Amino acid sequence: MSTVRPGARAGTVRGMAPATAALRAAMVDALLTGQTLSAPVEQALRAVPRERFLPGVPLDQAYENTIVTTDRDADGTVLSCTTMPSGVADMLEQLDVRPGHRILEIGAGTGINAALLAHLAGPDGHVTTIDVLPAAADRARQHLAETGYGNVRVVTCDGALGYPPDAPYSRIIATAGAWDIPPAWTAQATPDARMVVPLRIGGFTHIVTLQRCSAEDGPVWSSVHSVLSGFIKMRGEGLHGERDVPVVAGGQSELRVEDGIAIDQAALVHATSGPPVHHWTGVQPGDLRLPGLEIWLASLGGLTRLINRRPGHGLAPAIGSGGSLAVLHHTGDTFAYLTSRDTGTGQELGICAYGPHTGELAGQVAGRLRAWHGEYPHVTTTISIYPRDTEIPASNVLLAVAKDHTQVIVQAHAR
User: Which residues, in sequence order, are CB contacts of 380 under 8 Å at separation 6+?
Assistant: First the structure.
């Protein structure tokens, strides 16, 4: 473990080139056309010199609303990257940093986010940012020192462990996907702490804003906001793996499956060599992004995503550019995924299923799909984090997921 804390006050770079100033202003102005920013977050985005944290990246690219990859492993897998500025702004808004706050950040990256947090916390606040990758921590440490953000400590260690010497923390933010809420984060949080974390729930990542709770035998954290998103997974103790399993003979289509979910690849490849069972549901949603459907389907177990990587896969078209929602039967030899067709009055959702249990699985998926379509517009969902061995509430539970240290409970409430 290595740390550094250069100086005692946050600062900003003065005398920036006019081109840089114009690009930064344009970036923030563009963000303001699509989202609401509080004055402190807007000021932080206008103050922090992104280009100083992205040396070697073209100036215009540094200020685009895009991801910049900074680290890959030998196989080309992305290990570290920047978050899109719009995503950064959203997470900072949800975190609600106030002057004087002590903040724990999981995932130092380039140091950009730590600089923004330091700006928001002010000279009386403090940021501790952790990265498990020594190269990333070293890079963030150098960038923060060079740009004058002295109220930041950079720590090279496993983010799941937090950093006790700087605790307690009023705010905790993770910039890498977490499968569970590690006990260390709760132990190092103040009684009224707030946390923003990309949390893996049923195979999909939701950026969840959590408020710490104090009720005995109740949740430890409860959500005030959540949105579906995608993040690089945490490494180290917090890593929960997944794999892409080819399910057609040529390998053009894959199922992205979390560890612990049964899958019989040979049986699935055999099944896709024949025709699917089609089940048209009569459901015509107004929004083909299908907001919230992943939670409803996750209650069946085996939620996954079908990814058609190349033409010629032979399967019916899937919904969504990133892949279609899919469900594996508990036997691992049957899967079903969503497709659609134009009825002339809209897009009707359908189910394609392959394997020996197609009728059963297609019926289950259709049932959850119809329940979602009928109820989702009239309900809102909350996400609560309970201790692993606590008895869960019995009412309005859409999904209960047992983790290593906690239980994640998703409940529906009438709007």
Answer: 412, 413, 414, 415
